[in-house]
Design a protein that fits this description.
- The chain has four helices and two strands.
- By secondary structure, it is mostly helical.
- It has one domain.
- It has a two-stranded antiparallel sheet.
- A hairpin with a 2-residue loop joins strand 1 and strand 2.
- The longest helix has 9 residues.
Length: 68
């Protein structure tokens, strides 16, 4: 499952997501992706936010219970 499918953000449909179409399973590595409606910075700037994201935890297997 790719991040835009999990989060249902719709940015894949508009084509303005830097993770789309090739990096949807590792969006935290891509600069300029969205989080909480805000554009994020570089990998180093956004990693702490990403580590708190339900999708990041899902991909990394950190939690079995996903809250949406």
């Amino acid at each position: 499952m790719r991040c835009w499918e999990f989060k249902k953000c719709g940015r894949d449909k508009t084509g303005d997501c830097p993770a789309y179409p090739n990096h949807g399973k590792e969006c935290w590595r891509i600069a300029g992706t969205m989080c909480g409606g805000k554009i994020q910075g570089t990998f180093a700037q956004k990693l702490a936010n990403c580590m708190d994201c339900d999708y990041y935890k899902y991909v990394k297997g950190i939690t079995n219970e996903i809250k949406r």
